[in-house]
Design brief:
Belongs to the cation diffusion facilitator (CDF) transporter (TC 2.A.4) family. It is found in: Membrane. InterPro entries: Cation_efflux, Cation_efflux_CTD, Cation_efflux_CTD_sf, Cation_efflux_TM, Cation_efflux_TMD_sf, CDF_Transporter. The structure is a single chain. With 394 residues, this protein is an alpha/beta fold. The radius of gyration is 29 Å and the shape is elongated. It has three domains: 223 residues, Cation efflux protein transmembrane domain (Alpha-lytic protease prodomain-like, Up-down Bundle), CATH 1.20.1510.10; 80 residues, Alpha-Beta Plaits (2-Layer Sandwich), CATH 3.30.70.1350; 86 residues, Alpha-Beta Plaits (2-Layer Sandwich). α4 runs antiparallel to α7 and α5 runs antiparallel to α6. The two termini are 38 Å apart. It has a three-stranded mixed β-sheet, covered by helices on one side. Strands 4-5-6 form a three-stranded mixed β-sheet, with helices on one face. The protein is built from eleven helices and six strands. 62% of the residues lie in helices and 14% in strands.
Length: 394
Amino acid sequence: MFSKFLVSRFIKNNQDVKDEGVRASYGFLAGVVGIIINLLLFAVKLTVGLISKSIAVTADAFNNLSDAASSVITIVGFKMANKPADKEHPFGHGRIEYISALIVSFMVLLVGLQFVKSSFDRILHPSPIIFELIPFVLLLLSILAKIWLSRFNGFIGKTIDSNALKASSFDALGDVFTSSTVALSFVISRFTSFPIDGYIGMLVALFILYSGFSLIKDTLSPLLGEAPDKELVENIKKGVLSYDHINGVHDLVIHNYGPGRCMASIHAEVPCDISIVSIHEVIDKAERELSKKLNIYLVIHMDPVNTNDIEINATRKEVVKLLKQFPIVKSMHDFRVVGEGEKKNLIFDLVIEHTKVFSTKDEEALRNDFNNALKQLHPLYNSVITVDKNYTDL
């Protein structure tokens, strides 16, 4: 409830999450809230750590300080990512959000490495921990604060579909675990002289390192060109197929230039006997309407196909049947029959499993094997095959 109150209080037009300005406002709010809470937690835990002489509490305090710095970088990242497109960056600066998240990830790693060293030194040279009730209560309150912050970042991240804020939510939830472990060590140290503090500090540091590596993996993936969201893929395909005269789609390619900044191209199969002016109007309408509806930049290429020729339709069915002998083939498109008399060239594209290791030699072998199978049915037929890979399905 409080999360919704903050959104309604500080973000105008908060329902229009596709608007870049509104999205940036969400990111700014999440960053400011993160800075305030993490700085307060840092001050509280550092005080508790110094009073109790606990390396685990101190490590957790500096973890919160790094989280505050992360929130600063998040704000800067959202601000820079919202810059309009320019001559050097025609698709905008949206990927800066991923870069800012990557910087945060390395900062988390740095904090983890530092406290691996500090905790190891405490194990080798243990010192007594002073337990006091008020500092312990403050630790418990800090855990509740992190639980709320995790839910708040998760709420914002889901609302604007931000991987950076979703990662921040996960990071805050991890802090709940580490702070709970630290609080437990604080209690246990009251009843034993065993240097539990150093070992718990080591666990906290290792968890921080794990979080850092996880965040690096999550932020590198879109920068390297990860597979697009399956829901977006299906919405594009279904959307294009919903228009008149479009009978099939293939060769969908999606490029991600940052959250809410996608460029997509797709081939649409249309009847070859329709006026090119008429079908061009349909394609233009589809590009315009789907680009607005899906918040993408969509380009549609027309592929005219003959759907009324009896011979072509019969031959296409035979080819589809033959392709069942080749499990690696997912689909076929752009089927044409060229030639006069009994000698024919069957020209088409095959889509293969993208996850398979498929070399140029493998492609040639596929062409030869299919051609041999085809000639057993039609000795005078020859196939001209282009091998495609599917870039949208895992």
